[in-house]
């Protein structure tokens, strides 16, 4: 009989973690009897896997006491679900699910999947952030049978900052639907957008409009670049910083197109906010370059998918992921880089988060983008290299490693 694998995530809906959860569910169901569990079904399942889905039926929200009560209800409900299903191994995605998974642990094995840097996550702040980093992670993460990090550079964090035994840690990168992404990337743009792309070199970025993605400095860089270089900037995605980014762009004197506004799509704009797209890859493949200004990551899906599209990529050397993807043979620097690093599979750039060096770092970005846009041969070479590198991140490669790890844990 196939072993019973339970996968837990706090919620469904839109996000990189939810997409990875879907991929894991689909691929691991080839080897195990997979059941998915969520805290509640308040969000639509945008990435259905076809596997059995269970809800713990415990909502979020409320005051501090209500949140504590809900937390322990989730632990109790998950413990009961594990027992009812006869779970052999339980894998949790995202921190909230990790705590519930660990505290409900019975005879089953437990694996945690760490999707991003904890130590550099600026959303983990204040009293709650101190509780998570100073108490919960150091206390609870040691109870896991294994912890899988999506990037090699998260492992030192787990050891040095949270006291996890290095022998329990593994790095297995996120995977991408390489063949499917490439196929979708061949779809032509809508006619009006084709006219935009034909009018000037196109810089494109993709991701949630959120603090982690750090798109605000990118607008300042673009405004400076346009003083000496015709170009347009396309944002794919939406998020809580939409209004702030649009206002900042207009404050820089840039003409802004918003897909949600009732205005015609023409080449007369400088910046294009096109919102969420069913097929973002048709916007990425014909672009001149993909730009990625994140403040921190895990192993970013958006960057990997842009590489799959065969586009030259320019990314901050942020923790964690981009260096491992673009310069896998290089060691992680002990100090943030301050100059462009033309790596084998893309260009690593200074981060845009240090106020003391921001002006100089933005200038470095402007200069590097100007050089890249002027060198068609280099763009072709980097785009082809990026696409070749993306083949290392196929589902087949990644989930062979997952199957081996799971079987090892089950055998212990």
Automatic annotation (TrEMBL):
Residues 65-177 form the Glycosyltransferase subfamily 4-like N-terminal domain. Coiled coil: none annotated. InterPro entries: Glyco_trans_4-like_N. It holds the Pfam family Glyco_transf_4. Gene3D superfamilies: Glycogen Phosphorylase B. PANTHER family: GLYCOSYLTRANSFERASE. This is Glycosyltransferase. It comes from Hymenobacter sublimis.
């Amino acid at each position: 009989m196939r072993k019973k694998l339970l996968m837990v995530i706090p919620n469904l809906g839109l996000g990189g973690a939810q997409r990875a959860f879907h991929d894991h569910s689909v691929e691991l169901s080839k080897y195990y009897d997979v059941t998915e569990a969520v805290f509640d079904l308040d969000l639509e399942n945008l990435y259905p896997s076809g596997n059995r889905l269970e809800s713990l039926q415990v909502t979020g929200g409320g005051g501090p006491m209500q949140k504590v009560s809900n937390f322990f209800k989730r632990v109790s409900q998950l413990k009961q679900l594990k027992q009812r299903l006869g779970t052999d191994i339980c894998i949790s995605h995202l921190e909230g699910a990790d705590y519930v998974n660990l505290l409900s642990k019975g005879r089953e094995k437990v694996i945690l999947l760490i999707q991003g840097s904890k130590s550099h996550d600026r959303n983990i702040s204040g009293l709650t952030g101190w509780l998570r980093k100073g108490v919960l992670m150091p206390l609870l993460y040691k109870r896991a049978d294994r912890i899988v990090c999506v990037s090699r550079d998260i492992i030192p964090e787990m050891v040095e900052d949270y006291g996890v035994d290095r022998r329990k840690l593994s790095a297995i990168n996120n995977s991408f639907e390489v063949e499917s992404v490439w196929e979708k990337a061949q779809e032509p743009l809508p006619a009006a957008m084709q006219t935009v792309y034909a009018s000037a070199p196109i810089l494109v970025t993709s991701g949630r409009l959120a603090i982690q993605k750090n798109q605000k400095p990118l607008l300042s860089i673009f405004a400076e670049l346009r003083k000496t270089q015709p170009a347009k900037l396309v944002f794919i995605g939406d998020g809580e910083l939409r209004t702030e980014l649009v206002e900042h762009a207009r404050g820089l004197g840039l003409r802004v197109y918003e897909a949600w506004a009732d205005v015609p799509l023409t080449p007369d704009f400088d910046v294009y906010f096109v919102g969420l797209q069913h097929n973002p890859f048709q916007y990425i493949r014909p672009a001149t370059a993909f730009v990625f200004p994140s403040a921190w990551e895990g192993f970013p899906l958006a960057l990997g998918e842009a590489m799959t599209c065969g586009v030259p990529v320019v990314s901050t050397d942020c923790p964690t992921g981009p260096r491992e993807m673009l310069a896998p043979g290089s060691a992680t620097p002990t100090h943030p880089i301050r100059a462009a690093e033309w790596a084998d599979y893309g260009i690593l750039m200074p981060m845009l988060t240090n106020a003391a060096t921001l002006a100089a770092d933005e200038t470095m970005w402007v200069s590097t983008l100007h050089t890249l846009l002027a060198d068609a041969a280099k763009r072709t070479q980097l785009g082809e290299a990026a696409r070749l590198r993306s083949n290392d991140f196929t589902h087949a490669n990644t989930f062979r490693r997952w199957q081996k790890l799971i079987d090892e844990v089950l055998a212990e």
